[in-house]
């Protein structure tokens, strides 16, 4: 009684399931999360008799035929039992891709399947996983839904890729792996059932055989003296749903267009004439298969009904929430449009301001976003990067000496030269201009990214013109803020260049620089002396103290004294002494500054380096503090000061609001 009730309930729901399948297959549901609906997938190797089984269930010839692969796209076949009509056609087919076109000629159905297949896969045996959906209404069928899948093949033909077998197997598995799918595994009787391609695939996803019904075809061409009784009894490969044996029409019957009712009569005669099939007769024949499949599907739907209803209700709730997000119908009057546009603009401006200030709802706990990213750019990227920039570190003594001599011109160099220090300081300060401007540009990019992300999804989907206009107008506003920010940064750097303030309280100053330079000279002299003493001690231990060692010590000290006194001869001389007179030479085109030849010259380089490093650090600290302030004032804080007014001034105009509120055509159809 329970089984009968489930079957009745399931049978009544099959047409409803078919309707849901049509809805889910429509273009409007493209890309949506769908519900897996109950169905029966027909699986078998090429030439297993799969197409003949389906045609026998329908009672008509309607599937493509040929020596090679015939089913090249999944065919979802909805069979609907309909009472015979007094007026109009008794049997007809209808394709989902051609709604309203009634096919009463089943040969035309075959041609349309072939044509629709070729439209997607081409004419040279290509395959595709895109479904063809066909509904057949007839008083001669039982209500059921089947999916005819491409036959398993191993050898590519035509335009088929080398991995065609893998592609087809993956396509089949994508259907039969779902618990909502029953499996009709078709195997010819003249093959080894234990090695059946269809049963091998079904075992991968249904190892206990709870969803698989075996179909053994071509019983009439088995070797004489053999039968498929053990197959049908489940003694070779057990299946919980069992097996059904059928006799297909032979190729000659197909070519001669033998009517289905005659083929069924011959099938019934075959089983009556074979006493070995007496015990399994209820599992033999197309009628038994049709009743079995219809009952199984009805019961399957009945079993899945509670879960199916829950999943459909969940999906409906999601759809209703999505629809509510899109809002009500588009306003018709000018005042309604104005009110809606003003509302969207104010909400957008408030949303962006909240994002900048860190007041957005549902802030992430995984990544930085909004204003936190701006702060990261200012402090972690700009300030830390600027504080690591030190052009003085790569400036050699030769560079400084060259600058000192160049700025002196024809004059001798004073003890603490001022002009080379100021020129070198300006060169170092100028190197900070580019990273300072890049700071403003990076912040501008972050704000533009926030401007795009703050457009609500429902506005972008329902009113794409408004969403695009809001984002574009906001970015134009931000670009206008970038210009004064960059200009202010340029002015800040130019202020540092305009006046080298040696009176700054943190500046080291001349006397202190001289003291540091003298300490550097003393440290270097001490190091040289210690090196000489160490060499002397080592020699003393090896050979004893004698006059020769004393000469070594004396020579080392003399060399140190020569370095300190700056009496080292230049490596090149542009003059020569000949015959008691001096002969001068023309200086080379590229003339380098002389090395430090006196204590005074070495002191000049050391003092200049000390002053330069001190002043550069002061200027760098000032820019590290003032540039972020300029960016915040002119660019970031402008969002709260003037974005709302700018949006309203540009977009809240009577002449453009109607166009801004034009709905997306696809959304309007919902």
TrEMBL record:
Residues 605-670 form the GED domain. Residues 34-306 form the Dynamin-type G domain. SMART domains: DYNc. The keyword Nucleus does not apply. The keyword GTP-binding applies. It holds the Pfam family Dynamin_N. Keywords: GTP-binding, Nucleotide-binding. Residues 532-553 are annotated as: Disordered. InterPro entries: Dynamin, Dynamin_GTPase, Dynamin_N, Dynamin_stalk, G_DYNAMIN_dom, GED, GED_dom, P-loop_NTPase. CDD domains: DLP_1. GO terms for molecular function: GTP binding; GTPase activity; microtubule binding. It comes from the Eukaryota. GO terms for cellular component: cytoplasm; membrane; microtubule. PANTHER family: DYNAMIN (PTHR11566), DYNAMIN RELATED PROTEIN 1, ISOFORM A (PTHR11566:SF21). This is Dynamin-type G domain-containing protein. It comes from Ostreococcus mediterraneus.
């Amino acid at each position: 009684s329970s089984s009968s009730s489930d079957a009745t309930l399931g049978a009544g729901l099959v047409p409803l399931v078919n309707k849901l399948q049509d809805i889910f297959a429509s273009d409007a549901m493209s890309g949506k999360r769908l519900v897996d609906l109950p169905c029966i997938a027909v699986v078998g190797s090429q030439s297993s008799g799969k197409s003949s089984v389906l045609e026998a269930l329908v009672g008509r010839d309607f599937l493509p035929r040929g020596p090679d692969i015939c089913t090249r796209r999944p065919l979802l076949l909805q069979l609907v039992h309909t009472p015979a009509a007094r007026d109009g056609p008794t049997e007809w087919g209808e394709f989902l891709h051609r709604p309203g076109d009634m096919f009463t000629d089943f040969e035309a159905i075959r041609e349309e399947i072939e044509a629709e297949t070729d439209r997607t896969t081409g004419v040279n045996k290509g395959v595709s996983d895109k479904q063809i959906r066909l509904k057949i209404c007839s008083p001669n069928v039982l209500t059921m839904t089947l999916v005819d899948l491409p036959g398993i093949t191993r050898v590519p033909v035509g335009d088929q890729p080398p991995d065609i077998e893998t592609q087809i197997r993956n396509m089949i598995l994508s259907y039969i792996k779902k618990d909502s799918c029953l499996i009709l595994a078709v195997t010819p009787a003249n093959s080894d059932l234990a090695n059946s391609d269809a049963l091998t695939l079904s075992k991968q996803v249904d190892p206990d055989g709870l969803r698989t019904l075996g179909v053994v075809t071509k019983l009439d061409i088995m070797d004489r003296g053999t039968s498929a009784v053990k197959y049908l009894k489940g003694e070779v490969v057990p299946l919980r749903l069992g097996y059904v044996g059928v006799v297909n029409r032979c190729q000659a019957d197909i070519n001669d267009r033998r009517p289905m009712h005659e083929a069924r009569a011959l099938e019934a005669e075959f089983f009556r004439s074979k006493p070995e099939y007496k015990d399994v007769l209820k599992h033999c024949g197309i009628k038994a298969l049709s009743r079995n499949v219809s009952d199984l599907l009805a019961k399957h739907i009945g079993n899945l009904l509670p879960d199916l209803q829950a999943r459909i209700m969940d999906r409906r709730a999601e759809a209703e929430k999505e629809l509510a997000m899109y809002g009500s119908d588009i306003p018709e009057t000018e005042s309604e449009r104005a009110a809606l546009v003003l509302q969207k603009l104010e909400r957008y401006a408030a949303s962006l301001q909240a994002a900048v200030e860190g007041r957005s709802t549902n802030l992430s706990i995984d990544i930085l976003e909004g204003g936190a990213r701006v702060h990261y750019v200012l402090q972690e990227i700009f300030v830390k990067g600027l504080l690591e920039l030190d052009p003085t570190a790569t400036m050699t003594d030769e560079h400084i000496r060259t600058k000192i001599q160049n700025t002196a011109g024809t004059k001798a160099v004073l003890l603490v030269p001022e002009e080379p220090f100021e020129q070198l300081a300006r060169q170092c300060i100028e190197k900070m201009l580019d990273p300072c401007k890049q700071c403003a540009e990076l912040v501008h990019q972050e704000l533009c990214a926030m401007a795009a992300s703050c457009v609500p999804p429902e506005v972008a989907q329902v009113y794409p013109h408004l969403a695009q206009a809001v984002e574009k107008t906001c970015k134009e506003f931000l670009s206008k803020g970038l210009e004064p920010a960059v200009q202010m940064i340029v002015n800040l750097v130019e202020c540092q260049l305009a006046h080298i303030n040696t009176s700054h309280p943190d500046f080291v100053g001349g006397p202190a620089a001289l003291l540091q330079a003298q300490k550097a000279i003393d440290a270097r002299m001490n190091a040289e002396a210690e090196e000489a003493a160490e060499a002397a001690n080592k020699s003393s231990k090896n050979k004893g103290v004698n006059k020769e060692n004393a000469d070594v010590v004396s020579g080392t000290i003399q060399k140190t004294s020569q370095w300190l006194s700056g009496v080292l001869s230049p490596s090149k001389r542009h003059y020569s002494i000949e015959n008691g007179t001096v002969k001068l030479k023309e200086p080379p085109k590229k003339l380098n500054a002389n090395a430090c030849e006196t204590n005074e010259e070495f002191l000049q380089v050391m003092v200049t380096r000390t002053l330069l490093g001190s002043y550069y650090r002061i200027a760098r600290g000032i820019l590290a503090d003032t540039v972020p302030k300029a960016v915040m004032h002119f660019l970031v804080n402008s969002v709260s000061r003037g974005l709302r007014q700018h949006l309203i001034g540009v977009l809240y105009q009577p002449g453009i609001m109607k166009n801004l509120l034009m709905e997306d055509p696809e959304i309007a159809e919902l």
